[in-house]
Amino acid sequence: MRRGARILCGLSAVAALAIAPTAQAVDNPYERGPDPTENSIEASRGPFSVSQTTVSSLVSGFGGGTIYYPTSTSEGTFGALAISPGFTASQSSIAWLGPRLASQGFVVITIDTNSIYDQPASRGDQLRAALSYLTSSSTVRSRIDASRLAVAGHSMGGGGSLEAAQDQPTLQAAIPLAPWNSQKSWSTLRVPTFIIGGENDSVASVSSHAIPFYNSIPSSAEKAYMEMNGASHFFPNTSNTTVAKYMISWLKRFVDNDTRYEQFLCPAPNDSDIEEYRNTCPHAA
Q: For position 11, what pLDDT does the model report?
């Protein structure tokens, strides 16, 4: 090779190395945090420091709550998640999820409902109201990307997350936990939905709730079903590494479009405390 050609090739290689990181960042501007590992998503806290603030019960549309958010201002905005408790329960029953998910790079609001007896449809409306509050009125609204929102909930709150996802198809993800709803068909739902049920749930049995819900959602929506081995209806009320691990992976994959987390979802995980796992792998890019 002539000397001039060698110099040109060398310069091209240097240029490519200089451009590559920028190109990768442009490919997905929503990636937050370091490359994930099994240990990092199983940890009780992720890479982001977290603060919290209280939302008054006098707020419009839902019963108040607590916002957990990453304190970092160097990584841009974050996706956001609203979580509803179940029938007769308060936000304290699902409070453990707030800091755990926020420390992985999300703004999270755990809500109280207007009444502890509110049904799933009302809880769905309240989840959506909480997201609207987060993005338009809250003190942390500048930290949130309003185009990257998700919902979750336990029991009737889980049923409410299905309602919210069906009513607001622009949501990026829904995660019903031990969901209860008298409506069994969700054939018009298009939001990527991850349903987690308990094998021994006697309140919202998986055979009458979680599994029919999963089966009715079209595969084109992207969906997964995870059944916790031996778990009762109340498994979401206690800190659980497996539940958190795959919630984080689902939110990262679909709220942040972060394909680095695809490895934890596809192929189907086989953790010892998972009784069954169904999915639509491989997920569309």
A: 37
Whichever domain contains 252, its CATH number is 3.40.50.1820
Specify whether 60 is catalytic.
Answer: no
pTM (2 d.p.):
0.90
Q: Sign of dihedral through CA atoms 155, 156, 159, 163? A: negative
CA distance 228 to 125: 28
Catalytic site includes residue 155: yes
The stretch 66-85 carries a mean pLDDT of: 95
Range of the domain at 200: 47-279
pLDDT confidence band for 97 (50 / 70 / 90): very high
Q: What's the CA gap between 278 and 211, in Å, rounded?
A: 10
In a domain, 51, yes or no: yes
pLDDT higher than threshold 50 for residue 23: no
Dihedral of the CA atoms 190, 210, 176, 224 (nearest 10)?
Answer: -60
Residue 201 a catalytic site member: yes
Determine which one of 201, 209, 249, 256 is catalytic. 201
Q: Which residue has the tokens 């405390």?
A: 273
pLDDT of residue 10: 38
The number of domains in the chain is 1
Q: Strand order in 274-279's β-sheet?
A: 50-55, 65-70, 106-111, 78-84, 144-154, 173-177, 193-198, 223-228, 274-279
Rounded Cα distance between 50 and 103, Å, is 6
pLDDT at 21: 40
| Per annotation, catalytic residue among 154, 209, 233, 258 | 233
The single residue of 103, 155, 161, 249 carrying the catalytic annotation is: 155
87 belongs to a structural domain = yes
Q: What confidence tens digit (pLDDT) does each residue in 7-21 have?
A: 333 333 333 334 344
Q: Which two tokens stand for residue 86?
A: 């179940």
Q: Is the pLDDT of residue 75 over 90?
A: no
